[in-house]
Amino acid sequence: MQLYVFPISHFSEKARWACDHHGVAYELVRCVPGPHVATMKRLGVKRTTVPVLTRADGPPIQGSGRIIAHLDALQPVRSLTPADNGWQALEERADRDLGEALRRIFYSEMMTREAVIPLWSQDGPWWSGPLLHAMFPVMKAQVTKGYKLYPADVAAAEQAFEAAWTELEARLGSSPYLLEGRLTRADISVASLLGPLVMPAEHPFPFSKHTLPAALEPFVARYRGRPLWRYVERLYREDRLQ
User: Fold this and answer.
1) Which of 9, 88, 101, 230 is placed for a possible disulfide with 161 were both Cys, Cβ 3.0 to 4.6 Å?
2) Residue ranges of the domains in the chain?
3) Buried-exposed string 46-77: b where 16+ CB fall within 10 A, e elsewhere
4) Helix, strand, or coil here: 133?
């Protein structure tokens, strides 16, 4: 199997964590945003988004949620899917109000060559940096439109993020996990999607090599050290198999 990812992508990390949890043998294929479109077309998937998991016995699987479901079916004894269907609403909320919202908030302050090109070209081929520099004006326009990096949308994302964070802390309480007292896809979703904010030392992306724009510090400081922040740190320390 091959797992196609953006190294910086928190949705890619969600699928990568699930693959590692299941102990499946896979090759990690690091894609460069922009040029990756040609790769997605070659794979025959419907959209241009990663992650994508290819396999010898069937068509590629696109999207972290579908990848987790496939891995659970292969190894039900290590299933990450809770018996209670309530996980679905929780994971959808995390994807939207943590993952998508955080992406919008961060990129609203990071769409400069200096900030994003080192992130997008991390572990990429030698040509990725120069090509991204040349493509940057077009990619900036596409990302701004696609991720809705406009003031009103960013403000709405911050409100949604705060509400989801507060509700998750209340749900977690003193429990080590969100559902069933064990690691599930809900925990992996929340921890992965908050990875770029918390930047745990055990995260496979080398956050220590990169610096967030100073304009994001007030937002980060709002959450640093809170119970959900510590929960993410603990999950990476104790449950993120590398």
Assistant:
1) 101
2) 2-78, 87-238
3) eeebbbbbbeeeeebbbbbbebbbbbbeeeee
4) helix
